[in-house]
Amino acid sequence: MVTAVLAGLAADITWEVWARVFTPLWVGGPLQPAALVQSVFGFKNLLLAEAIHACVGIVAYPLAYLFVARPIARIVTPFLPWWCVGIGFGIGLWVFALYVMAHIFAGLPPFLGFGQLAWASLVGHMGFGVVCAAVVKWRERN
Hints:
82% of the residues lie in helices and 0% in strands. By secondary structure, it is an all-alpha fold. It is globular, with a radius of gyration of 15 Å.
């Protein structure tokens, strides 16, 4: 569990820096996953939405990497290095966020219409995946 939380913290910090510092330079505004959480669950409390997104990023997603994505990759694509698995995991998170949550549950266009925000989100999710995978790899060496 320690590995999952450390991976989640590092990956979530990476995501937040990308979303709030670099994305505005690219698209003119930050990524706002809490707004998506609000849309999905239908409430207005921004702090609660931020907390939900943080908990998912710090706990649920790293556990999904450790116990779902990585074991599947070891069976289906055992030749891929850890960082490729991390990128693939991040792409999977992006599909989950922008198709499943944003489109199916919140009723937004699939992948937000593939505009600049969607591509910025893809980069952020891939960064999340690689950092998550890197921390897991590092922890396994120690």
